């Protein structure tokens, strides 16, 4: 009896409640630290964009209004940090929503009160007036006639859209073929696609120039469209192959026993499942064409065509005396399409990594 | 609904032989199960029937007409894949009407037949869902409906139950059997699960290494396996196969000698005896229980004796013997099957007993 009693001495029960409390506190601290870290990291990324936007709406002829910038920062920084803090404290989505709305409201009111009177749209007059520099200075600029922004805009649109369309069409068909069919030289083809990725296309600028010259496409928009199409092709084919690899064979076989031809099976069943990849390479391809500078400048010998990138360069460099307000406004206008595309289609861009890994 | 024949069909992948000269006839409305281990060529056979693979040589006949060169889409064959292969970008209704899209059927008629078939497989409430919103069993039913909606000549089922849990598998087994009877469609089920094959099929085709080992009714395959492979593959727990040496004095198995009935040709033989046919504590050899596994309705024992290691079943839910117990094991001649030890084929008209 006495032996048993000695053995049954009280065992230390863990204090579950304090352990749980500690875990929750740690989780909260970690989340807070993460938000602070991410905020700090995004400041250098976001600040230039913020600066450009503020300048474009506030700069008066030539000068830069730093005061407006600092005032705007002074209003926005507390709002963002305050929202981050409430995000840590309140767990419920509804409370977070309210916090976001309050922060946004305070920010708008603060901006209206402090810098509202300094904001104007004068710098955006280039969108309506082709002769803004002549109007201002009474004479044309060094390079001759000032280009009209909508010419550049639609040319850029044409370059981006045409090259994207061709790229997506060819990459999709080639990716499907590489994914599904065995043919002589398939592995060699796949390896050479990778090798092409090793060399930077700019190294080929001079040969490309010569080819374009001999073909007779110099100083036409077709030149950059063709070159851009070719440059991205290997990478895009690889991405599409990865997406098609991920579509099971069963589904295709099933469609064909269900009465579809191979083409119909591709169209109705396989292609819809590679939709994410198609959207992703479309976005990438479009942004690539939209922002292209090197080949559009290299493949023209005068001012035979204007695109947005050369227009921005012209505004920044060729206007006598830099007009920061104008440059900022043009930059914002130039960024807008890429930004919108990215905002609406970013979930497909994140899929890209998965598709690429599978390839 | 069709009669289906395979005549001397061979399929090579490069130098490897996947299917080695098989011939098979399926009657109209018959339910056949192709049973075999993975890699035995059973799915290849199925895909050749569907028209997805082309045979290297030999003929495939539907109702007597050669269909080798008829494309998959024109064969009017319904397949249920192991993965179900539903089209994820379509709703259930669109999935089921997909096979009718390519036929000259009005959209309204197509939807009507889709709804009829959906009712038959009891998924009429799910028609607006997407495949990823369905459970495994529901996906299976959609796949069945899609295969059946075109009123196929031939229904092919490629391991359709292997992704379902045990309870669902049991109910789907009866369900598929019921549908097949109701529609009278010639059906080929490919499976590696011998219970599935035994319970569902009118006829089992047992395959191994690209060849047909044996075909026949489930009862025939169970009671009269023609080869050692068929004997060991069909039946759970598997048949005991005792390797021995036949001579005039009987069959020497390990240290024991079995009496024979009939003239056993001298040489290596295998004596097959099913676990449920071993008698306990009657006439027989001394054995020690090594393992006792209660299976619920009965108990499976593994025992060691002079015959080697043998398994036997006892119809008691509570084990009668413990590990280490001594028992006497025997068997009657009518329950034994003798195989030629060199060719692994059944020896006709001979028996053995302890």
UniProtKB/TrEMBL annotation, chain A:
Alphabetized InterPro entries for the sequence: BP-dep_ABC_trans_perm, MetI-like, MetI-like_sf
Membrane topology qualifier: Multi-pass membrane protein
This protein's UniProt keywords: Cell membrane, Membrane, Sugar transport, Transmembrane, Transmembrane helix, Transport
Subcellular location: Cell membrane
Domain ABC transmembrane type-1: 153-345
Taxonomic superkingdom: Bacteria
Pfam families from the UniProt entry: BPD_transp_1 (PF00528)
GO terms under cellular component: plasma membrane
Main function: Part of the ABC transporter complex MalEFGK involved in maltose/maltodextrin import. Probably responsible for the translocation of the substrate across the membrane.
Name under which the protein is recorded: Maltose/maltodextrin transport system permease protein MalG
Species of provenance: Roseibium aggregatum
TrEMBL record, chain B:
Pfam families (UniProt xref): ABC_tran, TOBE_2
InterPro entries recorded: AAA+_ATPase, ABC_transporter-like_ATP-bd, ABC_transporter-like_CS, ABC_transpr_MalK-like, ABC_transpr_MalK/UgpC-like, Mo/tungstate-bd_C_term_dom, NA-bd_OB-fold, P-loop_NTPase
UniProt KW keywords: ATP-binding, Cell membrane, Membrane, Nucleotide-binding, Translocase, Transport
Alphabetized GO MF terms: ABC-type transporter activity; ATP binding; ATP hydrolysis activity
Membrane topology: Peripheral membrane protein
GO annotation (BP), single: carbohydrate transport
Superkingdom to which the source organism belongs: Bacteria
Subcellular location: Cell inner membrane
A Gene Ontology term for the protein's cellular component: ATP-binding cassette (ABC) transporter complex, substrate-binding subunit-containing
PROSITE patterns: ABC_TRANSPORTER_1 (PS00211), ABC_TRANSPORTER_2 (PS50893)
SMART domains, per the entry: AAA (SM00382)
Domain ABC transporter: 4-234
Stretch forming the signal peptide: none
PANTHER family per record: MALTODEXTRIN IMPORT ATP-BINDING PROTEIN MSMX, TREHALOSE IMPORT ATP-BINDING PROTEIN SUGC
Family: Belongs to the ABC transporter superfamily.
Protein name according to UniProt: ABC transporter ATP-binding protein
Species, as recorded: Roseibium aggregatum
